[in-house]
Amino acid sequence: MHRVRLPALMDKVMSAADAALLIEDGMTVGMSGFTRAGEAKAVPQALAERARLQPLQITLMTGASLGNDLDKQLTEAGVLARRMPFQVDSTLRKAINDGSVMFIDQHLSETVEQLRNHQLKLPDIAVIEAVAITEQGHIVPTTSVGNSASFAIFAKRIIVEINMAHNPNLEGLHDIYIPTYRPTRTPIPLTDVQQRIGTPAIAIDPAKIAAIVITNQPDSPSTVLPPDAETQGIADHLIEFFKAEVTAGRMTNELGPLQAGIGSIANAVMCGLIDSPFENLSMYSEVLQDSTFDLIDAGKLRFASGSSITLSGRRNADVFGNLDKYKDKLVLRPQEISNHPEVVRRLGIIGINTALEFDIYGNVNSTHVGGTKMMNGIGGSGDFARNAHLAIFVTKSIAKAGAISSVVPMVSHVDHTEHDVDILVTEQGLADLRGLAPRERARAIIENCVHPDFRAPLQDYFDRACAKGGHTPHLLREAMSWHINLEECGRMLAS
Amino acid sequence: MHRVRLPALMDKVMSAADAALLIEDGMTVGMSGFTRAGEAKAVPQALAERARLQPLQITLMTGASLGNDLDKQLTEAGVLARRMPFQVDSTLRKAINDGSVMFIDQHLSETVEQLRNHQLKLPDIAVIEAVAITEQGHIVPTTSVGNSASFAIFAKRIIVEINMAHNPNLEGLHDIYIPTYRPTRTPIPLTDVQQRIGTPAIAIDPAKIAAIVITNQPDSPSTVLPPDAETQGIADHLIEFFKAEVTAGRMTNELGPLQAGIGSIANAVMCGLIDSPFENLSMYSEVLQDSTFDLIDAGKLRFASGSSITLSGRRNADVFGNLDKYKDKLVLRPQEISNHPEVVRRLGIIGINTALEFDIYGNVNSTHVGGTKMMNGIGGSGDFARNAHLAIFVTKSIAKAGAISSVVPMVSHVDHTEHDVDILVTEQGLADLRGLAPRERARAIIENCVHPDFRAPLQDYFDRACAKGGHTPHLLREAMSWHINLEECGRMLAS
User: Fold this and answer.
1) Acetyl-CoA hydrolase/transferase N-terminal domain spans which residues (chains A, B) (predicted)?
2) ipTM of the complex as predicted
C-alpha cells in the first residue's frame, strides 16, 4: 500500500477498536483536528463506544474543534474529564457549562509551548490522521496540521489513522516547523507568507507508531452561512475603510497578509474582497474557508498560509478534486506557527475576528454568553489581535430579533482589552479607535456601530457616566444591567 | 566641549526658553523619559513656564513616566491636550480622570510600531536628553532609551538636552536597534539577554538637530519603598515556587530571564532572590531598579538588560559613581525591544508584575480603580504577560487597612485575561493556575491568595455562582457589589 511506505510498519495495521485499547483511563491524549478538519475519526468513535460499556475518562487535547460529532460522542460517553484548547460542539458546551467537563480555553498558539515547558502534562498517546506514512516512517497530515506535530513528538506512542477519503496529493502541502528549545531558541525564519521553513511530514521515530488504522470517512462540511444583508454591510464598511487606508498611504493596494476567524461573518467579509479594487492579496490565517478559494479563483489572492482547510460540501469536491490547481498557492503549518506572535507582529497581519459583544470603550467579549456560559473559546483571536497591524472585530449590531444589542455599556467578560482593539465594525458602520482615549472611543462606537434602537440608551449611559468622571467612565450599578435584564426578562431593554 | 563632538552643531546651543519656542501650539512632541529616568528636563519646564503666559496645547508622547514633576508642571500649565503611553503623576492623573487630558494607555512596545505605520500622528519635534552628541552627530541617551530613538528618527526636528549631571561614561551602555519596515521586516536577531544587536548611539541626520540645551539636573530618585512583612511574604512564596519548579525539572537553577515591573512589590521580590539558592541569574526587563544592582553586588546576577535605570537616592551615587563596575553587565535598549513580544516569547521570560486587583478566575486589573479611575497605565505588563514563560502577578491581599480586598468576585476592569495569567501571589500564598479550568482556578485562588477576612464571602459567592452554572460562574447582580459597596460606603464588605 503506497499510503504506508515503511514496510516494517505494516504489521501495526489493526482495527480502530483494537487501537483504541491503547488509550487507558486517566491518560492524556493529543488528537489531530483543527476547525473540524483532519481530525482522527475512527479511534475516538471506537473509544466512545467502548466507554459506554466500560467507563473511562481522559484529558483530550486537540488543535481546535473536531468534526463528525466526535466531541458530542465523547461527551455523551462520559470520556472527557478535561478538554483543551477549543471546541464548538453544543453537547460538549453544555457539559462545560454545567461543570462536568473541565475546559481549558487557550490561545491556540500556546498549548504546545506549555507542553514543551512541561507546564501541561504531556500526552501519553497521540492519535493523528494522515494521508500517508513516508519511507522514513514520518507522518503526512491531512486537511489540518493543528497541534499534530508536537503531539506526535511529545507522546510516547502514536496511533495513525490513514484516511483513504483524503486525496493523497495533499502530501507536499504541509510545512512542519518546530521552534527550538529555550534557552537556545533561534528566531523563526519566516519572513513571507509563502515561505517554507520546515519539512513536508512530521518527523518522529517510527518505533513510536503503535497502531495504524485505515479509515475512509470525509471531514464534516463547514457550517458557514452565505452572506446576508448584514454581513454584506460589514464587508462593505471594511472595504471602504481599506480603500481609505490605501489612499492615506498606510497600506498598499495589496493590503497586508489577511487573517479571518472561522465563521460566517469573517467568511462574508473575505468574499467581499472579490469585487474590491485590491489585488495580489495574501492570507496568513488559521483556517482557509470557501472564501479563500473564491478569492484564488477570482485571481485576487496570490497565496494562502493556514493551519487547516475547512470547506462547505459544495466547495469540497471542487477544491480537493482539483488540488493541483491550488497547491502552489497554499501551505498548511502547525498552529503554533500560523498563530505565532513573533510572525504575526513581523508580517503585519490584518486580523479580522468575530466578537460576541463589545462595549462602548472597545473591550471585546469573544467567548462568554452573559459573562458565564462558554460559547466556543477564544481560539486564535488573541494570538492575532495583540500583535496585528490592524486588529479588527466584527459582529452584527443586534441579535435575537433585537432583544440583544452587541454593543453594551460594559462587556460581561473580557477576552480582548481596549489596548488590543483597533477597529470595530457592525452593519451600522465602522469605528476607528486608533489613537483614541476611552471617552473618544465611546463617541466613535456609539455614533458608528450601535443599532438605532440602542443608540440613545447607550448615549445616555455614557453621558451620565462622564458626569461622574473617570478615565473610563462607568456607573457600576448599571454597567451590567443590560445583561441582567436579558437574563431575567429575555431582553436587554424593556420594550 | 567633548559632550558635543560634531563642531558644526555648536551654534545650535541655546537656552531652554529659546529651544522651547520651537514647540508650537497643536504640535505632537516626542520626549525622552522612561520610569522617571532620562527625561528631557529643561525644555518641558520652559514650555510650561511659557504656557502660563501664552496658552498652548500639545500631544505629548514619552517612553513612559517622567520625573522632576514634569507631568505635574505641564498639566498645571494646561499644556497637555493628549498624553501617551504611560504616566504616574498625581496631578496629571486627576486631569485624566476628570476628562481634561485625553490619555492613551498603551502597551509600551506598541507606540513606535503604531507611529511607524502612521497609525498615530508622527511627532513634529523630539526632545531627547543625552550625555553626548557623537562626531557623526548621533545622540547618546542617558539613563533611559525608551522611545527616544524612534522619536528622533520620526521627528522633523530634534532638541537635544545635554545633561552634565549624568556620568559621560553612560556612553557605550546603550544598544539601539530599530526593526526594519514591513513587508520586508527580518527577525530581531536577539537570542540572549546580553547580546548587542544595534549601535551605541541614535543615528539621525544631524541637520535635524535644531537646538542643543545644556542642563545640569539629576533624575528624580525612585520612590520604591523598602520591603515590609507583606512584600517579604510575597517574595518568600515565589521563591518556594521557583524552587519547586527547579525540583520538577521545569527550570534550571539559573531560572530564566527575569522581568520585574516597577514598584515596591516587584523590587522586594527581586531583593528576595539575594538570599535564594539560585545562581547566575539574568534580567530582561524594562526598568532596572535598586534590586538589580543589589543582585549584581551579591554575585547573583550575571547580566541585566533594560530600557532604563531608576534608582533610589542612596543607590544613585553608588551605581553611577562606579559605573565601570557594572557596565559590562548592563545594556539599555529601546522599549520596543526590551518589551518585544517576539523576544519575550523566544527567551522565555519570567514576568513579575503588580496587580491592582484580580478576581477569583484570575483576570487582572492593573490600571483602573473602581473600574473607572486610571491609576498609571498598563505599561509593559501586557507585553510580558502574554508571551512570558511564566506570567506572574503579585499584590498584597488587602488595602486601606482591610477596607479593600485585592481579590474580588469580578474585576471592575480587565487588563490581563484569564488566558494570560499563570501565577498569582499575595502574602497569603500562591495560586498556580497553569492548566486549570475556571472553577479550578477559583478554588486555588480562594484557598491560597485571599485574606482570611474575605475568604468566606468569596467562597460563598463562588458556591452560589456554581449552583447557577456556567463555565465561569458569576452572579451578575452581585459581581460588582464589592466595588459598589466601596464606592458608596468606603468598604467592600459591611464590617
Assistant:
1) 11-213
2) 0.97
